[in-house]
């Protein structure tokens, strides 16, 4: 179980580092032109940058506390935070009538819930 949790955690870390980095460094108009990026025009450029920062920080929170053996309770808390982000993303995509993207966000949400439950419960890093 611990190996599976680490595998999923590293996958999610990569996904959120890439997604957050894109939001931080790519202009809103260019993001909007990407497949599935039409949502970007519904939000301000500042909000998108903040969302990118949250995703990058959440990705770091998934792995750094465990790797550094410090404040390991932050791992499942980071997962909960990213879960809220993905829940919001799924709602936005559903309202935009983009069910494929909404389902992808729900898939990521399911993986995040798996990590959060695993790290709060049976495979807790804190003891």
From TrEMBL:
It is a multi-pass membrane protein. The keyword RNA-binding does not apply. It is found in: Membrane. Pfam families: DoxX_2. One of its GO terms (cellular component) is membrane. Keywords: Membrane, Transmembrane, Transmembrane helix. Signal peptide: none annotated. InterPro entries: DoxX (IPR032808). It comes from the Bacteria. The chain crosses the membrane at residues 6-26, 47-67, 73-91, 103-121. This is DoxX-like family protein. It comes from Actinacidiphila yanglinensis.
């Amino acid at each position: 179980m611990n190996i599976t949790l680490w595998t999923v955690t590293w996958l999610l870390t990569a996904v959120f580092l890439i997604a957050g980095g894109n939001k931080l460094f790519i202009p809103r108009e260019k993001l909007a032109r990407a497949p599935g990026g039409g949502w970007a025009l519904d939000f301000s450029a500042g909000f998108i940058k903040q969302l990118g920062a949250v995703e990058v920080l959440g990705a770091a929170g998934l792995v750094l506390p465990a790797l550094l053996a410090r404040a390991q309770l932050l791992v499942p808390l980071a997962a909960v935070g990213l879960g809220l982000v993905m829940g919001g993303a799924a709602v936005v995509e559903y309202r935009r009538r983009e069910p494929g993207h909404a389902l992808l966000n729900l898939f990521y949400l399911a993986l995040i819930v798996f990590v959060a439950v695993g790290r709060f419960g049976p495979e807790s890093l804190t003891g």
